[in-house]
């Protein structure tokens, strides 16, 4: 640290500088430990899903799939109910996310433009549901008695369509767009709606990805509304099917008739878990970057 | 721009908000009207507005049922545990991550610890079964480890005692990484010269973390605390119900308002009482969050939520 060059680098990286002090070592160990704790449950499930049923039942779970077996996966991809659960989840996620994203964008844009008489009341209107909600009973009565949506995928999609928290994330992102660009479009004679569709949205792709991903994960994992409003086994989304496999309720209805005598129950449970996490795992490397951006935006803007 | 936009443009642009407004009216505001069920002897054939009033009978019934005390206590205890543990884990992980210099390791670490946030409660429930009970109700990874150490096996799913801690553990596992991202963002916004000053004074890494980073994370923690306090009467239904389900032996320590409401709605079909509990929950939650926001506002004006 004697040369001036070294000094400047030391200054600019002050919070990183210094040797490997005990505190740094403890930190690395702590983070590594948490990483392992995050990974082990996934690994045990993955390995179990490839382990022969008899071994699972007899010896329990292990870290290596031995003897190796694909029985559960074969069952999943031949059983009609399991495939239909996948279809249900994909439908709910795609349609739900598309609707949620467009509703949220429209509302957020209007709030973000700070229009007189409109923006502030709308913001308050969207904020109140965060503080005060009717709770389960009124929602249940609304969906079952008035909207009659039982056993429709829309019973899962609609009640969760717009999340106030994500509205506010998107508002603060829309407000960061440079006003000059919008103004120049106005000078060129573009209408307000044109500005939103042709300039606002295309410039906001990153935040649309963030908010869209939040919605997609939330729909993919959603099972509470499904539990409340879906009673037809053939329309169950994946998480609800999984939940039923845990409690073994109406289990036999979900499998192809021929397979029932030798059903690898434990293995199947794990394989279905893997299949449920699968798409998230595939999207993860792409999704995580945007998620971090979204949370940080939400956290700093409140 | 505000001054140049005439009312007419405002209203035309306002059309964009219409679908979302319709959503909030139907799914957030209309159910508020449905809360009158709490004051009614609800009869599904007569509908919400045709059922006869019964005053505060539903509330009285709930509070005298003997369940009230238990589920309120459980709700508060669990939420306080969750909130304290996830905040602590988030701060600790963020400070630890901040110590890591290797770019690759840091990125890998962040990706890994963030992943549980994406996992459905149902999947978490299955993981817990794998870890705690084994395929046929005995054994499991944790019990295998216990017997390996010469300790007796524990029948986790018949033992209500440890569950508040197990659930807290789950919450930390699920949200630790998520929280750490928030705190890490706050750490990166701490001005560099504060650390330079610390370094000149000869502070060690540990001292800088404890004396500089930790105190400067307080405002962020306060915001998260306020948000958490507002939710203190909500039981995190998804996770708890997915894990505990209808396993009655665990209710003494795990039954919370939301799971109780769900069960009484499903099994008993008592709409009046469950609506009353829901209303109680909303009112108390609202009072709590307002108080928390006001207190927080008094102490730190800049970081306030509203």
Task: Describe the protein's architecture and organization.
Chain A: Keywords: Cell membrane, Membrane, Transmembrane, Transmembrane helix, Transport. Chain A: It comes from Kribbella aluminosa. The complex is a heterodimer of chains A (302) and B (306). With 302 residues, chain A is an all-alpha fold. Chain A has helices at residues 4-12, 22-49, 53-59, 71-78, 80-112, 119-131, 136-146, 154-157, 164-175, 179-187, 192-203, 205-221, 224-229, 238-247, 265-301. By secondary structure, chain B is mainly alpha-helical. Chain B has 16 helices and no strands. The radius of gyration of chain B is 24 Å and the shape is globular. Chain B has helices spanning 7-14, 18-34, 47-50, 57-64, 67-99, 103-114, 121-132, 141-148, 163-188, 192-200, 205-216, 218-230, 237-244, 251-254, 257-268, 271-299. The chains are: A mainly alpha (302), B mainly alpha (306). At the A-B interface, helix 2, helix 5, helix 6, helix 7 and helix 10 of A face helix 1, helix 2, helix 5, helix 6 and helix 7 of B.
Tell me briefly what this model is:
The complex is a heterodimer of chains A (302) and B (306). Chain A is 72% helix and 0% strand.
């Amino acid at each position: 640290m004697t040369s001036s060059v070294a000094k400047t680098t030391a200054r600019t990286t002050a919070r990183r500088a210094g040797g490997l002090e005990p505190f740094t070592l403890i930190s690395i160990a702590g983070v590594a430990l948490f990483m392992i704790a995050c990974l082990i449950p996934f690994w045990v499930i993955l390995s179990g899903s490839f382990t022969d049923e008899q071994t699972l039942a007899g010896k329990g779970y292990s870290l290596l799939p031995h003897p190796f077996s694909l029985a559960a996966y074969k069952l999943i991809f031949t059983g009609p109910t399991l495939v239909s659960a996948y279809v249900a989840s994909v439908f709910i996620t795609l349609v739900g996310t598309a609707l949620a994203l467009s509703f949220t964008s429209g509302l957020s844009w209007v709030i973000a433009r700070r229009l007189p008489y409109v923006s502030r009341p709308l913001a308050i209107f969207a904020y109140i549901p965060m503080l005060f909600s009717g709770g389960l009973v009124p929602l249940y009565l609304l969906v079952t008695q008035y909207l009659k949506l039982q056993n429709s995928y829309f019973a899962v999609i609609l009640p969760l369509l717009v999340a106030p928290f994500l509205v506010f994330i998107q508002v603060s992102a829309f407000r960061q767009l440079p006003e000059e660009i919008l103004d120049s479009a106005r000078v060129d004679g573009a209408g307000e709606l044109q500005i939103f569709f042709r300039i606002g949205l295309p410039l906001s792709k990153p935040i649309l990805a963030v908010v869209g991903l939040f919605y997609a994960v939330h729909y993919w994992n959603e099972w509470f509304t499904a539990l409340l409003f879906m009673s037809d086994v053939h329309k169950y989304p994946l998480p609800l099917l999984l939940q039923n496999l845990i409690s073994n309720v109406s289990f036999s209805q979900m499998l192809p008739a021929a397979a029932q005598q030798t059903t690898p129950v434990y293995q199947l449970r794990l394989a279905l878990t893997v299949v449920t996490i699968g798409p998230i795992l595939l999207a993860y490397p792409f999704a995580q970057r945007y998620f971090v951006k979204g949370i940080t935006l939400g956290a700093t803007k409140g | 721009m505000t001054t140049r936009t005439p009312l007419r443009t405002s209203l035309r642009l306002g059309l964009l908000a219409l679908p979302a407004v319709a959503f909030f009216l139907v799914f957030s505001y209309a159910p508020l009207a449905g809360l009158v069920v709490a004051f009614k002897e609800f009869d599904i054939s007569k509908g919400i507005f045709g059922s006869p009033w019964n005053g505060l009978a539903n509330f009285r019934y709930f509070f005298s049922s003997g369940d009230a005390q238990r589920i309120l206590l459980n709700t508060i205890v669990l939420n306080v545990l969750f909130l304290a543990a996830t905040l602590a884990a988030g701060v600790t992980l963020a400070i630890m991550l901040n110590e890591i210099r290797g770019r690759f390791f840091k990125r890998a670490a962040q990706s890994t610890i963030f992943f549980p946030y994406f996992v459905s409660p149902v999947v978490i429930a299955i993981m817990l079964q794998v870890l705690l009970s084994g395929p046929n109700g005995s054994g499991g990874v944790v019990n295998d480890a216990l017997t390996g150490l010469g300790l007796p096996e524990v029948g986790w799913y018949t033992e209500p005692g440890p569950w508040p801690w197990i659930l807290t553990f789950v919450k930390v596992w699920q949200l630790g990484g998520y929280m750490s991202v928030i705190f890490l963002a706050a750490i990166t916004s701490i001005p560099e010269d504060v650390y330079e000053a610390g370094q000149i004074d000869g502070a060690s890494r540990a001292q800088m973390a404890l004396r500089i980073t930790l105190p400067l994370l307080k405002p962020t923690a306060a915001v998260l605390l306020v948000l958490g306090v507002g939710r203190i009467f909500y039981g995190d239904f998804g996770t708890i119900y997915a894990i505990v389900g209808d396993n009655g032996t665990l209710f003494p320590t795990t039954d919370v308002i939301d799971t109780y409401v769900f069960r009484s709605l499903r099994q008993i079909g008592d709409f009046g009482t469950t609506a009353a509990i829901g209303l109680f929950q909303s009112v108390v939650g609202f009072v709590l969050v307002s108080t928390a926001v006001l207190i927080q506002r008094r102490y730190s004006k800049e970081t306030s939520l509203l």
